[in-house]
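Can you make up a protein sequence with its backbone structure tokens?

===
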Amino acid sequence: MDAIRNTVLEAWMTEHGYSSNSLADAVNRAVEQLTGHGGGLDGSSVRAWKAGRVTWPKSAARKALEVVTGLPAVALGFVPRGRPSPTPAPSQQEEPDMKRRTLVGGIAAAAAAAAAPETASPRRIGMSDVNRLNKRFAEIIASDHRHGGQPGIEERAAALADEALNLQNAGSATQRVRSSLYASGAAFRSSAMWAAIDGRRYDVAKAHMREAQALAEMSGDQAIKFRIWSHAGTMYRHMGRPADACAANDVARNLHLTRRDPLFASLGLARQGAIHGTAQNRTDTRRAFEQAQDAMLRADPADHRPVWLLAFYDQAELDSLALSAYLALGDYPTAEYHAHRCLASLRPHMVRSRAITTTRLAHALLAQGAAEAATATAMKVPTEAATRHARVSRMLQEFGAALRATAPRSTTVQTWTEHTTTWRTAA
């Protein structure tokens, strides 16, 4: 039987600019960090993964790859030993450019097929159908970490949610499969909600939230319920409504899941700390982050968790939330401390998070009177993030206004003005 290409891994590599050789080098470095011994991979090893000749890498390489990408191996298209490989899709036998067009058009084609009049006996929907949707969801998560807040990401996630619902009506299925489809639909809609929040499109985010909440209730999945209500808390925090933010986040924190898994508890507490910072509750902020750190240290890294949580929540994200909170409180030295900690541990693919953290660090430095260091820091934000990411653009505009108010006729202001002019010409 011919090997089936791992198009999910290929898509991730393309998205993040990795060649076979550069990914092999990155995985080898991660192997050395994990085991103390250098890895032995080269470009041909990665090409074997992409070609489907190796469907489940060896343990050390697999764990190192998960460290590099921030995603579980199954979310990268690998199949554990003992599980059947998926049937080759016709698009896998086409030329590479045709495969990309097929991937992009898959959402619309599947939705149309599900809505078409039946001409044969009803098909059987199984977990393999759910898994195929979830693999494409992993690509959306990777794109979100790189670009963030873009309408295209929101549209892709919403279309996947619709496709999951279309599958419900496309054939017969067990209750387990139907619950999984509802959970996947809720996860996809929740990602659309997050993209809208990140792009400051709050009315759209609320519409996605309502649909996501309904799907989550039908799924009975506590993890996705946590995600949606936690996102709602973040949305209200960004909108300047700390009371609503606290109430929404409390729904997430009161789920039984947070008592079972300390990592979920940690995320709920860290986001609660960020909300307390917005509300100027200094004591509650400090207590929440102390508890969040303690819960993270108690969490077992080997426990099974959903892809979306593993893809972003770690020590860097905890420090990012603390940075936001202490910046809001006006405790700029503590904010700077958490900014440096966050930047030191951010995973390479977290491009959006790095831009946000760098901008917040610039604000913390400027508030302490270090105008030159702050400006040099702000100038490190990539042009794409500065011009295309709504949240970063707004924070940089606020930075420029604060800089001009602090040192109105300094050469630092002139340097910043000239730098932002290059953004306008590049946009």
Q: What stands out?
A: The beta strands are 123-124, 171-172. The radius of gyration is 23 Å. The chain is about 75% helix and 0% strand. Residues 87-121 have pLDDT under 50 and may be disordered.
